[in-house]
Amino acid sequence: MRPTSYSSRSKASSGRTSFRMTPSQPRSPPLSRGGTTMTSESVPPARRSRKEVLAAVIGATVEGYDWVAYAVLAPYFAVSLFPGDDPVAQVISAYLVFAVGFIVRPVGAVVMGRLADRRGRKFALVVSVAMMAFGSLMLAAVPAADLIGFWAAVLVVLARCLQGVSISAELPTATTYAIETASPRRRYFAGSLVSSAAFLGHILVYGTLAILVATIGSDGLEAGGWRIGFAVGALLGLVAVWIRRGVSESPVFEKAVKKQRPRPWPILRAYRRQILAVMLLAIGGTTGNYFLSVSLPVYLDHAGVIEKEAASGHMSYLLVVLIAVSVAAGALADRFGGLTMARTGTVFLALATVPLTVLMASGVLPFVPGVLLYILGYSLLLGPLPALLPLIFPPGVRVVAVAVPNTIAVLAAGGSLPAIVEALNAADLLDVVPWFIAATALLSLVGAFMIRARDLQRVDTETLALMRTDEVASW
Q1: What is the pTM of this model?
Q2: What's the pLDDT tens digit per position in 274-288?
Q3: For residues 186 and 34, what is the distance between their CA atoms, to the nearest angstrom?
């Protein structure tokens, strides 16, 4: 079989340039089950696929732990690492550095995304988790400001920049690797496992903090016990590096990307509609996530319904429910189709966010049942979305095409939401908050309908054409 080339072909009838692959032999049709298009691109032997999906899940868990550990431990290390005499100002400085990690993520998405699309999914995953672990090791070992002055804060900034670059493309890379190595009938399930792993990492952070508080107390944490939390993250990162080094590369990358070496920029230009759809979907998904886990307790506290400390206390086990329901939604997406599930989730969020939030704010609907209802609807989007987005792009640009618009959406929507809620409350416009969240969900609804079912089928068919004939036959 002669190599298949990427080429641009002009459509005389429309005057548009259509980018597509031109195989040297007839394409084989994709498999279809329950509205989900499936091809041999993701059909490795089952005994191998479980190990590789597990490697993606474990690494994502560690990255989730290391990323959130900074924010959780900041109140304990701020006085030690940031110069000054005002503890409040030192904590604010620590959180400003946390924001720096978000600012560098778009740049990291380009760098790490291209690394995954050019050098391989496995290579990028190993580099990503190694960078995150090294950042945690730097934070665990950085000398106090009393010893090296402002250089302590400089080292903290460098560590967070390193971690920001690391996490920028972690989820798209891990999800892409998982769906390219999983069984075709379990791709959305595998993707939901990877995305849920980040939440599991958050739970591990709070569990580690609870153990440290119980053993050495808050005073012990402020006296240097916070370093243990970062050391745990660094150690977990080394374990993840070892596990990820021991798995094989994605067969899709090996056959459809590595040997073809497609030029990325013509492909990305041809997929402008899908890139915009990713950004719109990510805006609603990110806002829903931050609203549920961060801003909803604050909003209801301002409304006088429940104190934010009490509401936050419920979030630990509600987060476990979110993980379970999201994974179940991913499994359902393999049966009914990921695009159908995502559209259903965005419709729910656009229509139900305001009524649910208003009912909770008025005290008619208790906090826990209200959050559970929100989780059920939000999971319809959260479960299938991580796998759906890479599947609408050719393998040669999958990671960078998802990572860049996703990180921009996270920076714009997720990072600014707490400040928006506080600003609206200060302006006596608290009632606007649920409408703002619903508006971002409406953007995601638009994005979901910008993706067409034939986008999935076309990418699957073209990818199948790039696979070797003997491997297609054996699979």
Answers
A1: 0.80
A2: 999 999 999 988 888
A3: 12
